[in-house]
Amino acid sequence: MARTLKFEAGRAFAGQEGERPLDLFFDYRETIEDIKMPESMINPYTITIKSLRQAAQDFSAKAPKARFALLRLWSAPHFYPFMMGLNNRDLTIFRDGIGRMWVWKFMCKDMAYSEYSVHKNMTARLEQMQRQLGSDSHKFQVRKDVVLVMGRDEDELLKLAAAATFSVQTQPWRLEIDFWKSFVNVDVKFLDGLQDEWWA
To answer: CA-CA distance, 177 to 161, in Å (whole number)?
Structure first.
């Protein structure tokens, strides 16, 4: 049975960023003030790129053979692979340029606070493994959809990066690490040379 939608939370529009080609965007700014984030949601921007770089440098200073992985969750250009609950989908309704209404089933990247949810989900996926590792849990740092993995050498990095990948990719199956946008078995000098966009 079709449902009649009487409002939209956002609007779709075409826009351009700098020198990049024309792209599709979704404007959800009007909903920001209506959304109250629970206290359990951590602002991922309090974890700065600079702090991740520093964590890698500090780790490398204590472990001269240290190797690193920067793992990024796969996502589509406009949405993260986290399904929206039926009770939250009204917040995703948007109107296109000719007045049609659409609803996202997965989390639109342009939605208000979408990065908070992604950060919480990624953190939760690694928590059980980190508890099992005990004192080694600091070897994983999460920021939004990126996981920094730190190993004392290649062998340890292989084990830890595989464990992080397994933790992200199982239950549910729809999540996976995007190895085309990840870096594995690199040194701290390589990480220092990466532009911030790779960490964002």
So the answer is: 11
- Written as one letter, the residue type at 75 is S
Cα distance between residue 150 and residue 152, in whole Å = 7
SS3 35: coil
For residue 6, the model assigns a pLDDT of 53
**Cβ-proximal residues to 154 (8 Å cutoff; 6+ apart), any chain:** 65, 67, 185
Predicted confidence (pLDDT) per residue in 51-72, tens digit:
999 999 999 999 999 999 999 9
Number of folded domains that form the chain: 1
pLDDT in tens, 123-171: 999 998 888 888 778 899 999 999 999 999 999 999 999 999 999 998 7
Find out whether 177 and 74 touch, Cβ atoms under 8 Å.
Answer: yes
Q: Is the pTM of this model over 0.85?
A: yes
Instruction: Give residues with Cβ within 8 angstroms of 189, minimum separation 6.
Output: none
In a domain? residue 46: yes
Centre a 10 Å sphere on the Cβ of residue 40 and count the other Cβ atoms it contains: 7
Provide the residue range defining the domain that includes 183: 10-194
| 27 domain-assigned | yes
